[in-house]
Amino acid sequence: MRYLKLLTLLMAAPFLLVACSGEPKEQMYDSLEEAVKQEETFREQQKPLQELEAEEEEIYNQIVELTSEETEEINKLSEEALSIVNERSKLLEKEKESIEAAKEEFDKAEGAAEDLESDAAKEAADKLIEKMDQRYKAYQELYDHYQTALSLDKELYEMLQNEDLTKDDLQAKVDEINESYSAVIEANEQFNQYTTEYNDLKKGFYEAAELDVSYEE
Questions:
Q1: What are phi and psi of 214, to 5 degrees?
Q2: What pTM value is reported for the model?
Q3: Which run of H or of E encompasses 214?
Q4: Which residues contact 25 (CB under 8 A, 6 or more apart)?
Q5: What phi and psi values does residue 102 have, to the nearest 5 degrees?
Q6: In the 8-state DSSP scheme, what is residue 164?
Q7: pLDDT confidence bin for 8, thresholds 50/70/90
Q8: Which of 22, 28, 72, 76 is the most buried (most CB within 10 A)?
């Protein structure tokens, strides 16, 4: 059986600032929360990406139920699956662009962090910056693994259109895909862990900087 688990990626949490005076800590707040806004596109890709993953999985299950003589239907379904893989790839690119835009906004906060007056705020800011860097690197790893998985999916559906495809060759490709998605899931879990930690550290920074913020559900 081909293995595919729907992925869920966590977003950075938004906070609302009650008052703003233009000090370094408020400037840092502006950059941090603008980064959250930039992740909106990233968030918006999650549901349609999951839906496409599920749709493709259903098509694959239909294909494996067919006999080798039903080549016309296999080819038709394989083409449909290839189209879905391409759509997933497009959504992944939108997701990546959103994450990169958010990281660019976050990087602006580093300059403001250097001008913080409170030692406690500086220490909290340093931890936050370190965690965001870890989170970004984790996403890059997730993206790379997912790209590899998509390439293998394409190879699978192209193979399925080959009338001379053997069961051994098919199983070998499925095993390769399963291994690839295991790496995707592991990277997804790491990214989510860093996101949770990042959200906690951001809240800690706001408290250390004595910013009057409220959490937005």
A1: -130, 145
A2: 0.89
A3: strand 213-215
A4: 112, 116, 118, 121, 209, 210, 211
A5: -65, -40
A6: T
A7: low
A8: 28
